[in-house]
Structure formats: structure tokens, C-alpha cells
Specification:
alpha/beta; elongated; 6-stranded mixed beta sheet
Length: about 280
Amino acid sequence: MPPKAVPTQRQKRLGHELRRMRIAAGMSAEQAANLLGVDRGKISYMESGVRNISEERLRTLAQHCRCADEKYVEALVTMASGGHEWWDQYREALPQGMLDIAELEARSTRMRTACAVHIPGLLQTTDYALAVFRAVLPPLPEHEVAMRAAHRSRRQELLTAASAPPFIGLVHEAAIRMQFGGRRVAHAQLEHLLTQSEKDGVTVRVIPFTHGAIPGAGQTVLYAEGPTEQLDTVQIDNSHGPDFLYGEAELAKYRAHLDRMEELALSPDDSKDFIHAVAHQL
């Protein structure tokens, strides 16, 4: 009987990497099963993320697939290791995608995000986040709004940790001028954004209206770099929940998008002046 557990995005990604490694080596699923001493069905479960793979079996598979990239293999071993994390307390209470985003951020080595309509989640105030969640349709019950805001607040602790990954927020002028929660909340949010931008490792850059078209049609995009480039991930917000992309062509496309946005954006200092000016108008 197949396992009933719903895999996390991390588990799905690990399974994807195992399958990619096996196929690149020209190894069949049956050969992999014989190598690891399991039945063929378990290989399918491992590669879909619904069954764990032990460190020993993972290293055996990598060795026989002639994977010489030690840093990549070590990263896969880390992905395969379990353990309780803070976001697990929200499991079955919040959508799995929200937990997957928290885990993606926590495992990243560097993040770049581009937001066209709202301030990046990791830089939002509580009141601003509450206003964002209250705009969801169909409307969320108030206790779930509060839970989502609390979860977002925990995510934000990442940027104050000693091992915080560098964070670059590319924010369009439209997001700077949007008044989620009204003028008072919007003004406090801009002041908070300026404070956050002074922190080591946090960079905020504004793309003004006057710079015209931007790539990506205004999508909210997070590019999270992994321990190796093969393990980079793109996360895109959608009304139905987050999408996670990691195909080579997709990663290259969104790297190019963000590179172009950085070319269009004001410098960090000019961006602070711009945010100050908008805040003064509120």
C-alpha cells in the first residue's frame, strides 16, 4: 500500500534530484532498487518524496551514479535529514505552501525577491500583513488571519539571525504607494521598510514608475539560492497558493528577470530617499 503522507516541497525537491541523478547516469529504477536493496516501488516513492532515503543509501546512489560534486551530495544529505522545525507547529492549521515558503527561506543561502504590488513579506509590519490577509477572497476567518500574521512574524526572525542569508528586495513604486490598511498603516510600513533596509545583509531597491516596463508582468517572485546552484528554487505567488520552480531553463529565466530589475532599480541610497519622500506625502 502506498504511503499516505503528503510530502513537503523539500521532500519533493529531494526526490526530483534523486531521479535526475539516476537518469543522468543512465540507471533504471530497477537497477537502483537492486543497488539499494529495496523493491522497485520504493524507488518511485523516494523519487516522489513520499518515502525517506537514508544517508547511507543516498551516498551509495550518488557514488554509483558517478556524481563527483561533493558539495551537491552533502546538500542532498542535509535535505534528507529530518528534524522538528518551528513551522511544524502550523502543520494542518495553515496551507502547506506557507510552511514550504518558510522552509525554503530558512534553507536559502541568499534571497532576491521582486514585488510589484505589496511590500516583501519578510519586511512587512504586523498591521500591514493583517491588511494583506484580510484582502483574501473568499474572506478568511479572523482567527486564521491572526495565525497567518503570526506565522509571517516568525518567518521574519530569519533576517535577524546570526546566520541570516543576504536579502535583496526589489520593490516597484506601485507597492510603495499602495495603502494596505489605510494611510496610517502604510506610513508605518514605509518607516519600517527604511529601518529594515539599514540592517546588515538587507538591501531594498525601488523601481520607479518612470523606468517603464519591467519583466515578469508584475509577478511576485522569490529566487532562493541553495547550497549549490543546482538546488536554487524560484517561488511565485498565486491566488491558488505558491508555485515552486527549479528546472534549469526556469531558473535561468528568473535570474535574468531579476538581473534586469536590478538594472532598472534605484541605488539603495536613492531608494531610501524615494521611500522617505513617499512616506512624507502620506
